[in-house]
Amino acid sequence: MESLWKLLYLLEPAPMTLIVTAVAVTFGSAFRALIHGKEMERNCDLLEASITLDRSQALMIPVMRSCSLLLMFYLFSSVSQLLTAFTAIASVSSLFFWLSPHVAYLKSQFGLADPFLSRCCSKSFTRIQGLLLLACIFIVATWLVSGHWILNNLLGISLCVAFVSHVRLPNIKICAMLLVCLFVYDIFWVFFSERFFGANVMVSVATKQASNPVHTVANSLSLPGLQFRTKKLELPVKIVFPMNLWGGASPAGNTADFMILGLGDMAVPAMLLALVLCFDH
């Protein structure tokens, strides 16, 4: 009976918000993948093709993720600034991909004029798309300066949506095999990695903070306003919510004060849901 009372913890604001966000991201990613698939069918010569995983590629995902975990576990401090820069570039692209259909919908609803700015490599670029790209760059730049957890979640969600839309599973058999492999992967790295590596590798990597290259450059050039630039950043490979959700947690607060959910815990179920939606449509 006592264990049942402990489940009431899930009804608190932070756990409930985390659960609702995870479900919404999973379904949103799957439906965005469906829309992207329809766009490719209509404009196969204009849009890049998605990657469809075969059996060997699906089996390599847990292996490559394990190698990445070990690399970040041992060499994180050496590659953290490079990871931050790469993540910032990928986040701009992912945000633009995620928000483009919503902006196009609003444009059609309000009948906004959208002249072409340029045509390059068989692709057109309009004025509204240019403004959207600038907005995405601004959001990522604000995240680099502030490191706020809300912006971290926004970028993480966009990366999840882009991954699910561009990496597809061909059938239920490969999907089931991938889920089983990732299930074993999670169990090993969360519960048994400490026996082999002296620390919980999954938790250690998930709670590490990357060096902020913006702060490093500003410090080396002695730029003003350095106190407003965070030294460390939570990379958007997870969504985080402060335990005291309504208390206004500090962006530079201790990671232990946050609830964490990895993007993979949402991306893989979303890939399965996207596969089912493709069959339905």
UniProtKB/TrEMBL annotation:
Name the species this protein comes from: Gossypium gossypioides
Report whether Membrane shows up as a keyword of the record: yes
Q: Which UniProt keywords apply?
A: Hydrolase, Membrane, Protease, Transmembrane, Transmembrane helix
- Transmembrane regions listed in the UniProt entry: 14-35, 125-144, 174-192, 258-279
Q: Which InterPro entries match?
A: Peptidase_A22B_SPP, Preselin/SPP
User: What is the protein named?
Assistant: Signal peptide peptidase-like 1
Q: Give the way it sits in the membrane.
A: Multi-pass membrane protein
Location in or out of the cell = Endomembrane system
Family of this protein: Belongs to the peptidase A22B family.
